[in-house]
Structure formats: C-alpha cells, structure tokens
Design goal:
Elements (H helix, E strand, L loop, with lengths): L2 H26 L8 E2 L4 E6 L3 E4 L8 E6 L4 H16 L3 E6 L4 H10 L6 E4 L2 H7 L6 E5 L4 E7 L4 H17 L1
Parallel strand pairs: 4-5, 5-6
Antiparallel strand pairs: 1-8, 2-3, 2-6, 4-7, 7-8
Helix pairs in contact: 2-5
Length: 175
C-alpha cells in the first residue's frame, strides 16, 4: 500500500477509536448530584393551569423537572407517558416548556393523553439559553439551589427513564 493510504486508514482508525471511547463513556457514566450549571433567575409566560408569568424564584428550595417539548415532536409525546409514570412515584413539580408550537396544539394533544405537568409555558430566548436547550426533547432536573443536576438531550427510552431518571430524582430529593 502506498504511504498516503496507510496514513488515511490510520487516521480513520484513530477517529473511530476516539468516537467509541466517547460514546461508551457517555452511556456508562453514573449520574451525579454534582451541579452541572447554576441557573440565572428566569421567567416565562405559562398558559396552564392559567395564563400568568412564571418566575423561577417561586421554586426556590424545591426540586423540579423541566421538559422542553412540542406537540409535533414524536419523541416528546412518547416521553409524556414516562413522565406520567414518574409523577406517581416522585413528588416534585413537573414543568413543560413548549418550543416552536402553539397553545392550541398543546391543548389538543392533552385531549388525548393525560397531562403530567404542573405548569406549561412557552420558551423564550433567555429561558432556552439559560438551560442550554437547543434540541427536543430535553429534560432537566433542578435542585433546591436552582442548579441543574441532571440533563438528558434527545430520545430517552422507557428503560432509561426507569433506570436513570427515577432513581436519580428519588436520590436527589432524599438528600
């Protein structure tokens, strides 16, 4: 083989080795109660259970879970049943922040499935930036100090929900 092909193949092998190590470490790491990020105080418009401005200071001293979602997002809809199950096991506030959707679409969605959320509101640029939300679905657990202690981006299976989020949130509220 000529030298250029050998260098190319070696580069490809190194790239895939690094990729495999990175992916393996992502899935094998245990969640930790160590804060990921301290949230700045934030507010946003909620429409459920009533229309008003929500202020994050109202949840100081409480654990809560935030789910960024939309009615057009199939994986977001799938997670709603998992959140319903979680709500029966772990007594914290559950907040949905709706991205690129309408109040009418969300209300229509919850005509056909049980709504697990204590509050539903609309994302604004600051709230999305504050949480680091850039895709759907995305879940966050926030501790009593207003710090994100758990973040999951993208599709989550029922098994992951039961094996990671439920025990993690249960441990967090017991601390």
């Amino acid at each position: 083989m000529n030298r250029k092909i050998k260098i190319f193949l070696a580069s490809v092998l190194v790239f895939f080795a690094i990729l495999i190590i990175a992916i393996t470490s992502m899935f094998n790491s245990e969640p930790s109660l160590k804060p990921i990020k301290k949230l700045q105080d934030y507010s946003f418009e909620i429409f459920y259970p009533q229309h008003l401005m929500f202020d994050s200071k109202s949840l100081d001293g409480e654990y809560y879970m935030v789910n960024f979602m939309a009615s057009w997002c199939g994986h977001c809809i799938e997670e709603i049943s998992y959140i319903n199950s979680l709500k029966t096991k772990i007594p914290v506030k559950y907040i949905a922040i709706v991205v690129s959707d309408s109040e009418d679409n969300i209300k229509e969605l919850f005509k056909y499935m049980k709504n697990p959320f204590d509050m539903i509101g609309f994302a604004n640029q600051f709230v999305s930036y504050n949480f680091g939300n850039f895709s759907l679905p995305q879940n966050f657990i926030v501790n009593k100090k207003g710090e994100i202690i758990f973040k999951h981006t993208g599709v989550i299976s029922k098994a992951q929900f039961e094996e990671q989020i439920i025990p993690f949130l249960d441990e967090a509220i017991r601390e």
